[in-house]
Design a protein that fits this description.
The protein has about 375 residues and is mainly α. It has one domain. Helix content is about 70%, strand content about 5%. It is built from 13 helices and three strands. Strands 1-2-3 form a three-stranded antiparallel sheet, with no helix packed on it. α7 packs antiparallel against α12. The relative contact order is 0.16.
Length: about 375
């Protein structure tokens, strides 16, 4: 039997995201002359596909399907990420010099959303094969063993953070991989070494890109000097939208900051939009549901006996955790904005389908738990 509370909580957030994609997109609909139901229909199709994926995957046997699905996802989207910089502008949508979306007629795909799932599946399967049988190791042997995984992470960093200029997704993947290394039995010395190298690489990726330096400067100035808030227009309006919502919100459809003041309010800033229209109470409820989903996944991980499934469940929970909190901290001005979608809620078919895929795989694994 699958984990029904996890399934129910996921569907609640998907439905809320669908409703808010309609309410928060009103200005964009008027500006570009779209049909009133444009975003609602597109998000609805993604939610329907996500629902089918969750139900379909939950019925499969993980011992038979987990490995082939993981290898297929990892290799397919690794190849896609490799060839994306070489594809013409007509096929790969470019914004600010970053090619993150593949155009397929009236829809576009964000490959990195699916690559993250395949990455965690492949790493979980491979680490169990290579690290667990080794037992206790010295630092030199650990480094030799983990070098291939670090190379994969470096390649992923180049493809995502450099060619696609998406540092946020790289941070999420790196943090998840480091924790998986620790859980699979790496020593504290190796963990500290890897953490130091990761921090150094993060600083290097920031200082070599002028737009990242500017973003941090703007955030720092706005945080320390109210007069400089114009330099961080999005953060300023996001905070004002949250403040304007109060405890119970202005009412669904009555938000003001979505009317041209806060761009991408139905995607990266959806939490600010929800806060203005439905209030602080709803944001607390959304946070509790998200934490409940994370808790249920960790609970499944704790009870499953197969190490590969354990690592994947932990990795999936960490992807959701880091994405949610990085987005939350960004829209509230605590940290610089990283452009990471809120799992299950943000508008975007790739995000919704990939998040649903992850939950479907976790539910598939949950059937392996021995219940009384």
């Amino acid at each position: 039997m699958i984990d029904k509370p996890l399934f129910s909580a996921t569907m609640i957030l998907l439905i809320l995201g669908l409703i808010m994609s309609y309410s928060l997109s009103s200005y964009v609909v008027l500006k570009y002359g779209y049909n009133d139901m444009h975003f609602f229909i597109r998000q609805g199709v993604a939610v329907l596909i996500g629902f089918v994926l969750i139900v379909g995957l939950s019925k499969l046997d993980p011992d038979k399907w987990f490995k082939p699905i993981g290898v297929m996802l990892f290799l397919t989207f690794l190849i896609v990420l490799l060839i994306m910089p070489l594809l013409p502008e007509s096929f790969v949508k470019s914004v600010g010099g970053a090619k993150r979306w593949i155009n397929l007629g009236s829809v576009s795909i964000t490959p990195v959303e699916f690559y993250k799932i395949g990455f965690i599946m492949f790493i979980s399967w491979s680490l169990v094969r290579t690290r667990l049988p080794k037992g206790k190791m010295n630092l030199r042997s650990e480094i030799k063993l983990f070098v291939p995984y670090i190379v994969v992470l470096i390649i992923s960093t180049l493809l995502i953070a450099v060619f696609q200029k998406d540092l946020g997704q790289t941070v999420v993947l790196s943090l998840t991989l480091i924790i998986l290394f620790l859980l699979v039995g790496s020593s504290f010395r190796f963990f500290s070494l890897l953490a130091g190298l990761s921090l150094g690489s993060l600083v290097l990726l920031i200082i070599t890109q002028p737009h990242r330096i500017k973003r941090i400067k703007d955030w720092f100035l706005s945080f320390n000097n109210e007069s400089n808030r114009l330099e961080t227009y999005q953060i300023s309006n996001s905070i004002d939208a949250i403040r304007n919502g109060g405890f119970f919100g202005q009412g669904i459809g009555n938000g003001q900051y979505k009317l041209g003041h806060l761009s991408e309010v139905n995607t990266d800033f959806i939490l600010a939009g929800i806060s203005e229209e439905l209030g602080f109470v709803m944001i607390i409820l959304v946070t509790l549901i998200m934490l409940f989903i994370i808790f249920r996944i960790f609970k499944i991980a704790a009870k499953v006996e197969t190490p590969t499934y354990y690592l994947f469940c932990v990795g999936s929970a960490l992807l959701i955790t880091f994405s949610f909190f990085i987005n939350s901290f960004g829209i509230s001005g605590i940290t610089p904005i990283k452009g990471i979608a809120v799992p299950f809620l943000s508008y975007g078919g790739s995000q919704v389908i990939a998040s649903s895929l992850s939950i479907g795989l976790v539910l598939m694994i949950s059937k392996k738990i021995k219940r009384k």
